[in-house]
Structures are given as C-alpha cells and as structure tokens.
Amino acid sequence: MDVPYFEAAGSHRQIGEMIGRAFSGQIRQFLEFKREYFENGAARLDDSVRKTKKKFIDCCHAFAPHLLDEMQGCADGAGVGFDELLLINCADEARNLCRAQSGDGCTSFALLPETTGGPILAGQSKDGPGPQWDHYIVLLIRPDDRPAVLQLCYPGMLALLGISETGMCVFSNNISDGVVAEGLPTMVLKRLAWDCQRVDEVESMVASHGVAIASNFLFCDCYGGAACLGTQGARYGRVDDQEVVIVHYNHYRTTSLRGRESAAYIRNYRSRERVERLKHLYGLHLGAIDVPKVFECYRDHDGHPKSICCHETPEEFYGTTATLIAEPTSRRLHVCVGHCCEHQPVVYQV
Question: Vertex 103, ends 99 and 105: CA angle to 5°?
Fold first, then answer.
C-alpha cells in the first residue's frame, strides 16, 4: 500500500510550514476523519479539546516551546487555524474525556540481542478503524537544533511511532480508563523521548513529570536498553523483567497499576491472549529472529478476527492498519501499511 513520504529540514517553524503546505488537503481530510470516528461526535470532541488544550499549551511552554512553533508553522502552511492542529495533537487526552472506551489496540515488542542473535529490534502493530491507513504519511524531519526523527504519523500530528537519529525508538499502546490526569501530554512525551540517548533518560522524565493519560510506551535505544513504561498520571511502572522478549498490549503488566484499566476493553480486544501468543511465536525462533521473521509472527491469525493480524468484520470496521519494525543500531524503520498478511513493508532510513 503506497504511503506518502516527505522530508523537511530547518527551524521548527520552517519544518511545520513545509509539512502544512505539502499536506494541506490531507490535514483537512484527517480533521474530518477525527470528528467522524469519535464516538460522541464533533461537538463533544471540540469541547474536550477546549478542556485539554490549555494544559497542552502550558506544558509546551514549560518543556517544549519548539513544538508550538512547529504547530503554528504547520497551521500557517496548511491554511487552517492553530486550534485545528490542537485538535489533532490533543486527541489522546480529548478522547479519554469523550469516552471511557477507545477503539485503538496495538501489539508492541522489543527483542534483545540474545533473542535475535544480532542487533536489537523493536516495533508494533497499529490497530484501529480501517480508514486510518488512508491518512498515514512517513515523515523525516531534520530540525536545526535537535536529532532527526523518522516516523509513521498522520498529517499535522507531532508524534506517533518511529525512531530518531539517536537510535531511540518510540512505540505505544492505548490503555482505556477514561481519565485525564496531570502530566506530559503523549505528543510532548514522544517528541522529547526522541531527543534522548537511553531508555533510562526517558524513564527519569516520566518519573519526574508523569503522563496525562493511561498508556503504555515501549522505548528502545541502540545500546541494548528496552522497557515498557505503563503510565497513569503520576503513577508509572516499568516492565522489562530482565526479559529478552518484551511484549505489551492494552493492559497493564506492572503490579502497581494492574486492575486500573477497563476490563471490558481487555476482553474485547483479547489483550492478554495476544501477549501470550506473540511471546510463543517468538519463542519458536529464539536466537535467530530477524526482520522477516518478526513480520511472519505479525501475520498470525490465531483468534481471528481479533488476532495479532487483526481483520475487519461486517460488524466492526476495525483491524490492523500498519506494522512497524525498527532497527535502532542502523536507524532503519520498516513500515507495512494495511494488513501485513496482504502487503509488503518499505524500508526507510534516518
């Protein structure tokens, strides 16, 4: 499946303007998509954004003013209002205010060298409403003052999934609890994480400032560090268990947070079953797992349609919209948009 690829370099304002001009029409289309697929409709979504945008702006002023410059440049380049870009970039927090249940599930992993027999690998599948794949872009930005970032994202969005020039990989899984707390918005956390060299630096940032919504983040660096950080406001827990295979879905695996998420969401998306299935599949190849084998595991249909490779049904237009694998040491990102049982990945380089 073809996905637009775009590179931008310069100041953050210049980068934003270039993205806005290049994807003006797509940004408008994505805004319409966001409103359509929020369960409670556009009016409720806009109200939620109004409630979250002040916290978002205040957080950017305190920790990442360059992101406000980038968003303003993007809004100017696309010819849309700054508040429209806020709607895209506050969406995680606004969604939790709109509803306790979310329609995004994912399957993230990190494989340490003992498992691969070579370099560390990390990545995830991105599940959600099928039309999501119509809006994806692959974006490489090279700011004047920060490391380059290569990511799969949506037009106008500051951060989704990918790898930076430092070798830091950022992946995430939604955890549904319907709460918005004090802490870093997800977009801000991801962009600041890409500036870091090591996973421990990111954990220190989460420990100091918290994260605004319940989530799981999988961070991986080029030095062999990898961990899932389950977050809920000021609470967080680290999952690495000294494992060589780290797998995470849509429920907490840390004892300090376990049981605080939506049990119905966990059941509906077979979160625990998918954890065990993916770990089993990786276990069949211990010591010799490479990128093609990872994609093979992500094509698994055990438990269809809510399998690792999740497919839409007549009752629910929900499935796997993309699968990504990052190679931190070589700064490569393999991106397969759509079901990876039907499409082939494309390799991108920072």
Answer: 130
Query: For residue 225, what are the contacts with CB-CB under 8 A and spacing of at least 6?
Result: 198, 199, 200, 219
Residue range 22-45, pLDDT digits in tens: 999 999 999 988 777 665 445 566
CA pair distance 304, 7, nearest whole angstrom: 37
Q: Let me know: does 83 contact 250? Beta carbons within 8 Å.
A: no
User: 113 is written with which tokens?
Assistant: 């060298």
Which pLDDT does position 243 carry in this prediction?
67
SS3 227: strand
Strands 137-143 and 5-10: parallel
CA distance 60 to 54: 10
Give the rounded distance of the alpha carbon of 48 from its chain centre.
21
Which residues partner with 174 through β-bridges?
A: 215
- Cα atoms found within 13 Å of the Cα of residue 137, Cβ hemisphere only: 23
The 3-state DSSP class for residue 105 equals coil
CA dihedral sign, ordered 5, 103, 129, 280: positive
Do 342 and 1 form a contact (C-beta atoms < 8 A)? Answer: no
CA 345 remoteness from chain centre: 18
Q: CB under 8 Å to 65, separation ≥6 — which residues?
A: none
Strand ranges, E, within 176-290? 211-220, 226-233, 235-239, 245-248
Tell me the sheet residues that pair with 131.
none
Judged on CB neighbours under 10 Å (0-12, 13-18, 19+), 314 is exposed
Closest CA to 107 of 223, 273, 288, 328: 273
Token representation of residue 194: 């890409």
pLDDT (tens digit, 9 = 90+) per residue, 112-163?
998 999 999 999 999 887 778 899 999 999 999 999 999 999 999 999 999 9
Q: How many CB atoms lie within 10 A of CB 275?
A: 18
So what's the pLDDT on residue 270? Answer: 67
